[in-house]
Amino acid sequence: MNNHSVTIKDIAKILGISKSTVSRALSEHSDVHAETREKVLALARKLQYQPNAIALNLKQQRTNTIGVIIPETENPFFARAVSGIQRAANQAGYNVMVCQSSESCRTEESNLKSLIATRVDGLLISISRETDKSDHFDAIFQKKIPVVFFDRICKTLDTAQVTTNNYEIAFEATQYLIRQGCRRIATITGPRHLYTSFNRFQGYMDALTKNNLEFNPDYLLLSDFSKDNIEAYTRHLIDLKEPPDAIFAKNDLIAIEMMHIIKKRGLSIPRDIAVLGFNNEPISRFVEPALSTVDHPAHDIGAASAELLLSQIKGENHHPVKKTIKSSLLIRESTERLVAIGN
Amino acid sequence: MNNHSVTIKDIAKILGISKSTVSRALSEHSDVHAETREKVLALARKLQYQPNAIALNLKQQRTNTIGVIIPETENPFFARAVSGIQRAANQAGYNVMVCQSSESCRTEESNLKSLIATRVDGLLISISRETDKSDHFDAIFQKKIPVVFFDRICKTLDTAQVTTNNYEIAFEATQYLIRQGCRRIATITGPRHLYTSFNRFQGYMDALTKNNLEFNPDYLLLSDFSKDNIEAYTRHLIDLKEPPDAIFAKNDLIAIEMMHIIKKRGLSIPRDIAVLGFNNEPISRFVEPALSTVDHPAHDIGAASAELLLSQIKGENHHPVKKTIKSSLLIRESTERLVAIGN
DNA sequence: GTTTTTTATGCAATCGATTGCTTTTACACG
DNA sequence: CGTGTAAAAGCAATCGATTGCATAAAAAAC
């Protein structure tokens, strides 16, 4: 009726009883006369009483909300991760507050402040591309807020975390390309201080070394994310005196754009250049040739992180749990040189 | 130091003054002796005092949080829209709580309840595929919660809304296909009770009629979203006695998958079948042939919705504002039959 | 019919801020 | 020295719930 929602006090006043009795009746507490309880419940239903969550939050010192900081909502990997987080959190009765740092360390800092001020019960964080320090996370530990870092974790912090086997999968992928007869494998990767980029690069390097292939700096492209000029990168690679015979890209979007440019230049994939992506976007099955990629299970990473956080909130894990989820190599046509050459 | 954060009371006790003075000093209120204020501010900084947002929320009866309900976080369109929402909201000092209905009306209902219980200051809603009623939104109006529906709005509700010119753009797109010489235009669309699907279908129909083309029910596919079997749909179309010479798909993902299957069957795009998508995914520029599509400005829709909501929260608009954002037709290769035939 | 026990309810503090009103303090002026 | 006034600080209510403790009412025991 009025603008303000009905409160426990309203019900008490109407029924001529005290707030406490109403509260106890609603929370099925015991020690309330059956008749009174019924009256309260009936009126509550009639007035569509809904407890004020804020008052509860204040009293109980928790918000049933978890905060999430990701680099970019639009990034399909993070979108899927958030979806996994939401599913797990909602199931457990938690709400999810999502902030994007837009790959900026300063925004990340301000997101964090805001989420802490909101008194979220826990935090799920994947750091921005720019973030190469960790002191802005100090407040989390000072205030003992449960936290799980996922995917892009902070190497210097000993916290709960969920990652994938970046090193191993990059090693495996590179090894596979070598077995396909590739000898000049280019890679486009993120900044070295990012956990994922670093480990993937390391896996790539070690696979080269193990196969007695020399690392050629010409074949290493450092991706600047949004500012990337993939076309220029690709041209640069193709125009090298010794152009690469394989490209291991940071993600499927870049891989597909590169394929497009390579094909326009009249080169054949995978015969001239094999292309391998990362993330397994739904679309990658349908480009030509179908893109080989790494299945990076974003949804599972998100869900696992949320579950880890929730158990931490419940006070279950006293030592930071570190969980690894396995990615897997998905071979399609864009790297199957042996088959292609056999044709 | 201790687990619990420092409060205004702690500061008051340490300095031997009252809570009110501390509060006034912190809020620069006036009527506080300069010396006292300095002492308070200094101690607050030293103890890293952060006001308890929950207490403030309770007192001020607002949360500085807006709630968002979308069908799917993973859907690129909604991911972009949420990104726009976040940007606009954060700029204005608001946090964003995102829920996904997973295209289920019941989940949508439960999301809504949860957000109302959290006492969000306003709601941004894009309804689920399943939602063909609106009574679960009643609580919003009873409680007079500011709300903006966007993209997938609820036809039966007279609320603020942000949509695109679905009808016009579908009409224009179909008209364009006809001008390209297409006479048997198939379309794959969502359920009729969805605002977007309905209007797009209507635009498609009216364009056919205007050009004296008969509507052929064989050419209409109703998409079931996640459960879709695009391959079967496409085969069905191709295997018709009179297969279509154009397909206007609900979104780029479906369009690209269809292109893939059409090409595998040895048909040429756009010569045999022209393919038109919707949404303008980044990837669509790079498939072969490059996909013509409708640029549906998700980010802008999100940002505009958030801004509309914020002005409503400020109490600026007393009548529901309805805003339309223009989509635009993006012609690439997958529909350029005149050029293709000219070749 | 009184005492004891059980059952049901109410009072008031609490969570952490804000804020209207009162009170104290200090200072100026007649 | 008394009084008026302004400046500074404190008291207590408020927001909407929960909950320990006190108390009232009803039921049981003697």
Low-confidence stretches of chain A: none
Overall radius of gyration of chain A: 26 Å
Give the oligomeric state: homodimer
Instruction: Give the distance, in angstroms, between the N- and C-terminal Cα atoms of chain A.
Output: 76 Å
What gross morphology of chain A would you assign? Answer: elongated
How many helix segments of chain A? 13
Mean pLDDT of chain A equals 93
Proportion of strand residues of chain A? 5-15%
Q: Structural class from helices and strands of chain A?
A: alpha/beta
Helix-strand topology string of chain A: HHHHEHEHEHEEHEHEHEHEEHEEH
Biggest chain pair interface: A-B, 55 and 56 residues
Number of strand segments of chain A? 12
Strand order of the largest sheet of chain A: 2-1-3-4-5-11
The biggest beta sheet of chain A is recorded as:
6 strands, parallel
Descriptive report:
The structure is a homodimer of 343-residue chains. Chain A has 343 residues and is an alpha/beta fold. Helix content of chain A is 42%, strand content 14%. The first copy, chain A, has 13 helices and 12 strands. Chain A has a 6-stranded parallel sheet with strand order 2-1-3-4-5-11, sandwiched between helices. In chain A, helix 7 links the parallel strand 3 (122-125) and strand 4 (147-150). In chain A, helix 5 (76-91) packs parallel to helix 12 and helix 8 packs parallel to helix 9. The first copy, chain A, is elongated, with a radius of gyration of 26 Å. At the A-B interface, helix 4, helix 5, strand 2, helix 6 and helix 11 of A face helix 4, helix 5, strand 2, helix 6 and helix 11 of B. The structure holds a DNA duplex (30 and 30 nucleotides).
